[in-house]
Amino acid sequence: MQLTADLVINAPTYTNAINERTVSFRSNGLLSLQNLESLADVYECIDFTNNELAYLGNFPSNKTLFNATTLLFANNKISEIEDSIGDYFPNVTKISLIMNDIESYQELYKLRELKNLKSLAIHKNPITAHSVGYRSFLISILPSLEVIDFERVKNAERERAKELDIEKILLDDKKKRENSSSGKRSVRVNRENLSHQNHSNDKNNRHQRNVVNKLNDSDRQLLKKQLLEAESLEEIQQIETRLKQGYW
């Protein structure tokens, strides 16, 4: 569903439990942020929980929401954040990004533009599941933070954060992601090549066909399942070898 100007103008509003005037776009199946220039700057809390947003951006360049202090984006599919988020929401103090798809320090780094941010909820994202240092990283780039994932920032954490080399972390993160993307492309290409090769062998190579025939139906189904689920070149090569040798 698209965020139309009509939906923006007619969205339900209410006063929440902490007396914030709130506009709600919850559970509308929204795919992207659009027509935000139609949103009046009168709300302290803007709620986009439970949608299908993948990109936290597309903010209008000719408008700023000075009154917004709380942003709720939990349970979306956000993996990218626009650099200008701080220009559009300069006074935000609380933001929820729980249950999204943020997996890189490069995306977290863009939150540094929220100069007044005090509370950030970001657990149940890939970056929080796979990195034990995300709290220190956030504290380093956002000194204003007082609470991360409902846990107060401790003085000891602030001291550790001062020792971080942010540039190195970002560079290492970029290289890691580039290598990961390259590896995934290689796996996909090799999987396609393997599929074509097996199809050709089934037709033209009697020996290969005989080996395959030695496998029972259950074996063949398991082999196909393993090929589909293989995540590395090494796995694909191992499965191919087993296929050629005729046993698992």
From TrEMBL:
<dbReference type="InterPro" id="IPR032675">
    <property type="entry name" value="LRR_dom_sf"/>
</dbReference>
<feature type="region of interest" description="Disordered">
    <location>
        <begin position="175"/>
        <end position="216"/>
    </location>
</feature>
<dbReference type="GO" id="GO:0005686">
    <property type="term" value="C:U2 snRNP"/>
</dbReference>
<dbReference type="Pfam" id="PF14580">
    <property type="entry name" value="LRR_9"/>
</dbReference>
<dbReference type="GO" id="GO:0030620">
    <property type="term" value="F:U2 snRNA binding"/>
</dbReference>
<dbReference type="InterPro" id="IPR044640">
    <property type="entry name" value="RU2A"/>
</dbReference>
<feature type="compositionally biased region" description="Basic and acidic residues">
    <location>
        <begin position="189"/>
        <end position="205"/>
    </location>
</feature>
<keyword id="KW-0433">Leucine-rich repeat</keyword>
<protein>
    <recommendedName>
        <fullName>U2 small nuclear ribonucleoprotein A'</fullName>
    </recommendedName>
</protein>
<dbReference type="GO" id="GO:0000398">
    <property type="term" value="P:mRNA splicing, via spliceosome"/>
</dbReference>
<comment type="similarity">
    <text>Belongs to the U2 small nuclear ribonucleoprotein A family.</text>
</comment>
<keyword id="KW-0677">Repeat</keyword>
<keyword id="KW-0539">Nucleus</keyword>
